[in-house]
């Protein structure tokens, strides 16, 4: 299958243009037609102009509605792809910071040991095979595609060389943006604040512990998050996850279970339990399978493959059975 390439910047720009055109059509519909007096253009022409606006007024209204729907459609698709892209970029930034910290710690340990051997007279300081001192730890990293789209990540480190704070900000030329700031503590606790492309703000606190065995690094995480939408609706999620990262292959496998309390799409309060299975390979290919179950056992399954979404519904989602594909 060929790679899927979506220019969500173009989609978002088209959405903005559609809304601008809608505003122009609305202004034309609601504004007073110019040159409609008999003194200005004559009685026959004035009558024709007024008749034109009267006849086409409803058509203008329908055009406004279609342009609004078109804008919403393009914006929804653009934000959906951007949200997936931004989440992947944010995760990659945190992973890169962790790897850089591990690399620095290893190089510093080798250098410090060499210095100890030299000081004790057990090594020649002029030996051409001597290890090199570790490079300065990176404090920021920025990419710019030359078209106004940038990703900036800043790092802060503790005395042990491990990250204590990572902030990632992503902005695009058409105004899409997201930001995430996470603070890490030596005891494994952390807190974060993130704002996504939809304007939702999520604050999270948690406890994370990492163990290593061979090429596998396993991180277990217990967390509580509160999300506030732009219109003030709040939901709270508690859960736990286990993530296994293979340092040799670059593959990551994460399984998360959670419970969310908050308003549904209809605005009514509800409790939803869910599971998320995420796989990411070293090339950045990501598959996310989410199953959410309502108190009556019904629910939804969503599979995101590199940003492409497929959805199913079932009356027996709690048994992971009876799934029916939702129409596009």
Can you describe what's shown?
With 328 residues, the chain is an alpha+beta fold. Helices cover 32% and strands 38% of the residues. Strand 10 (269-280) and strand 11 form a beta hairpin. It starts with 7 loop residues before the first helix and ends with a strand. The model is unreliable at 1-6 (pLDDT under 50).
Radius of gyration (Å): 28 Å
From the helix content, strand content and strand pairing, which structural class follows? alpha+beta
Q: Write the element-wise H/E pattern from the N-terminal end onward.
A: HHHEEEEEEEEEEEEEE
Helical stretch count? 3
Q: Strands of the largest sheet, in order across it?
A: 1-2-3-4-5-6-7-8-9-10-11-12-13-14
Q: Could you tell me the mean pLDDT?
A: 79
Task: Provide the low-confidence segments as ranges.
Answer: 1-6
Major sheet size, sense and barrel closure: 14 strands, antiparallel
Taken from the alpha-carbon principal axes, the silhouette is globular
First and last CA, distance: 21 Å
């Amino acid at each position: 299958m060929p790679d899927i390439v979506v220019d969500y910047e173009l989609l978002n720009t088209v959405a903005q243009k559609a809304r601008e055109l809608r505003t122009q059509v609305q202004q034309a519909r609601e504004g007073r037609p110019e040159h409609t007096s008999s003194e200005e253009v004559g009685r026959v022409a004035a009558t024709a102009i007024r008749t034109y606006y009267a006849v086409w007024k409803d058509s203008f209204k329908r055009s406004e509605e279609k342009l609004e729907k078109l804008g919403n459609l393009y914006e929804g698709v653009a934000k959906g792809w951007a949200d997936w892209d931004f989440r992947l970029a944010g995760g990659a930034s945190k992973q890169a910071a962790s790897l850089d910290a591990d690399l620095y710690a290893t190089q510093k340990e080798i250098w410090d040991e060499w210095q100890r051997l030299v000081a004790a007279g057990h090594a020649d300081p002029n030996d051409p095979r001597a290890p090199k001192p570790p490079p300065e730890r990176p404090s920021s990293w920025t990419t710019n595609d030359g078209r106004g789209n940038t990703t900036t990540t800043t790092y802060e480190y503790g005395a042990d060389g491990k990250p204590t704070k990572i902030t990632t900000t992503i902005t695009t030329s058409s105004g899409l943006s997201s930001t995430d700031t996470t603070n890490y503590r030596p005891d494994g606790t952390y807190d974060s604040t993130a704002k996504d492309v939809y304007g939702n703000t999520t604050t999270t606190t948690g406890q994370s512990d990492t163990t290593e065995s061979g090429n596998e690094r396993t991180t277990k995480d217990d967390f509580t998050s509160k999300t506030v939408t732009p219109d003030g609706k709040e939901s709270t999620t508690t859960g736990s996850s286990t993530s296994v990262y293979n340092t040799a292959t670059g593959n990551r496998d994460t399984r998360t279970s959670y419970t969310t309390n908050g308003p549904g799409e209809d605005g009514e309060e509800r409790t939803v339990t869910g599971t998320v299975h995420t796989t990411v390979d070293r090339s950045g290919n990501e598959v996310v399978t989410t199953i959410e179950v309502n108190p009556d056992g019904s629910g939804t399954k969503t599979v995101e493959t590199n940003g492409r979404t497929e959805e199913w519904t079932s009356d027996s989602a709690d048994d992971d059975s009876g799934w029916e594909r939702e129409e596009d």
